[in-house]
């Protein structure tokens, strides 16, 4: 069967926007149990000669730091259990956050391939200097993208399929 790729990251970093860009029209919503964070959205994605199943693990929008972190841990656990490759997405505007570092530690320990996407780099000249701090997560080279402006998406997909 096809490789599975999961998107993990804090609320508001742009997971759904990236998911929609990568999925195009081919989205199927799968709800395991309504209202539960383990609800997932699946899409079939084709890039060059490779096809894969993409999962957005984002569920309900949490409203406190404690809930954010526990939901992120749950997302990361789902991704580690089910995915062959994990896209860990962060936000260059908000910068590196404590919860990013904690989830990066979980992902690193899992030994799964992780692609680190730094989103909202809408202007590469303006924001590139702020991308480098994400090297501190210790999960490899950050890939700058702008999901909203569809910049860097091809490079990101190249990195993903190189892991299959
Ligand atoms: P999620 O909570 O991680 O799923 O994030 P969303 O995809 O819902 O996006 C959260 C907010 O960030 C929305 O207002 C998006 O329009 C915005 N956003 C997403 N991607 C980008 C981007 O590349 N650049 C900018 N400037 N905003 C973005
Ligand atoms: Mg979302």
From TrEMBL:
Subunit and interaction comment: Associates with the 50S ribosomal subunit.
GO molecular function: hydrolase activity
Annotated gene: der
Family: Belongs to the TRAFAC class TrmE-Era-EngA-EngB-Septin-like GTPase superfamily. EngA (Der) GTPase family.
Name of the protein described by the UniProt record: GTPase Der
Lineage top rank: taxon: Bacteria
Key words of the record: GTP-binding, Hydrolase, Nucleotide-binding, Repeat, Ribosome biogenesis
Sequence positions that bind GTP 1: 9-16, 56-60, 119-122
UniProt organism field: Maccoyibacter intestinihominis
Domain EngA-type G, residue spans: 3-164
Record's signal peptide: none
Function: GTPase that plays an essential role in the late steps of ribosome biogenesis.
């Amino acid at each position: 069967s096809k490789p599975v790729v999961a998107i993990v990251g804090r609320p508001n970093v742009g997971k759904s926007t990236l998911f929609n860009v990568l999925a195009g029209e081919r989205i199927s919503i799968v709800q395991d149990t309504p209202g539960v964070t383990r609800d997932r959205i699946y899409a079939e994605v084709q890039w060059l000669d490779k096809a894969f199943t993409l999962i957005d693990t984002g569920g309900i929008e949490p409203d406190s730091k404690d809930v954010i972190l526990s939901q992120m841990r749950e997302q990361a656990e789902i991704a580690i259990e089910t995915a062959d490759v994990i896209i860990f997405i962060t936000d260059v505007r908000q910068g590196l956050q404590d919860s990013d570092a904690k989830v990066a530690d979980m992902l690193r320990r899992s030994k799964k391939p992780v692609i680190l996407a730094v989103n909202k780099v809408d202007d590469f000249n303006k924001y590139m200097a702020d991308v480098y701090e994400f090297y501190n997560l210790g999960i490899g080279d950050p890939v700058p993208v702008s999901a909203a402006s569809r910049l860097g998406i091809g490079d990101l997909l190249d990195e993903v399929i190189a892991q299959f």
